[in-house]
Every structure is written in structure tokens, then in C-alpha cells.
Design a protein that fits this description.
134 residues
Length: 134
């Protein structure tokens, strides 16, 4: 319900083309997660479980980013590069993977592969439609 409420709020603020594109992308990623879980882990999640895992993954990444921004503003660190940047990226990937692990119930390794597949395919889709919707 929280995700649907956030999407409705987003729909009021964003242009129609962007709202439709984001909705289609979420649906596409949900289907990719379902198919990836079947292929990688041998489990057959429902579309609802796949959608829930996409929501959890997005929520965990948002919380991790919020914690990082809070830490960086509190300490005065405004530029992160090198090894700390890799640690931040690894932390974001772990948060993303935990969303799939919690939503689908697969192992961490299988969830990491599902997260990688969904990220790559959604990135390709975003790159290919960027002129249409954005």
C-alpha cells in the first residue's frame, strides 16, 4: 500500500509521459524478477511477491542512501572517492539484494544474481527509452 501511495503522489507531481514510463518500468522489472527467480533459484514467485521484492529493494536502497547522506552531512564529508566509494556502492548493492532476498525468500547469492539481472535489464530499457519519456 505504501508503494501504491507513493506512486499516486508521484503521478500528481510528474508529467503523464514520465508517470506512464515509470509504471511500465516497475511492471517490467517485476516480470524480470519473476522470470529471473525461476531461472536462477528454481522458485516460482507470484507477481505479487516479485512486486513486493522490487518494493523492498527500492526501500532498502532509499534507506541506505538516506543513512549515507545523513552521515556525510553530519561529518562534513562531501566527496567520497576511492575505496570508501566502493564501500558505499557495495553497501547499496547489499541493501538492494536484501530486498530481493526478503521478498522472494531466495539465498543471498541467488538474490544477488536476480538483482544484477534486473538492474542490467532495467538500465538497458531506461537507456533505450530515455528520449521518449524523459
Amino acid at each position: 500500500m505504501l508503494f501504491i501511495g507513493a506512486f499516486i503522489f508521484f503521478a500528481f507531481l510528474a508529467p503523464l509521459k514520465l508517470t506512464v514510463a515509470v509504471g511500465a518500468l516497475v511492471l517490467f522489472v517485476t516480470v524480470v524478477v519473476k522470470i529471473s527467480a525461476q531461472v536462477v533459484a528454481g522458485v516460482s514467485p507470484t507477481l505479487s511477491e516479485s512486486f513486493k521484492s522490487v518494493f523492498y529493494a527500492s526501500l532498502f536502497v532509499a534507506l541506505a542512501l538516506l543513512a549515507f547522506v545523513s552521515f556525510s552531512s553530519g561529518t562534513g564529508i562531501h566527496q567520497v572517492d576511492g575505496l570508501p566509494a566502493l564501500a558505499v556502492m557495495a553497501g547499496l548493492f547489499v541493501a538492494y539484494t536484501l530486498g530481493f532476498q526478503l521478498g522472494i525468500g531466495t539465498s543471498f547469492g541467488a538474490s544477488a544474481v536476480i538483482a544484477l539481472i534486473s538492474t542490467l535489464l532495467s538500465g538497458v530499457i531506461l537507456w533505450s527509452i530515455k528520449g521518449l519519456a524523459f
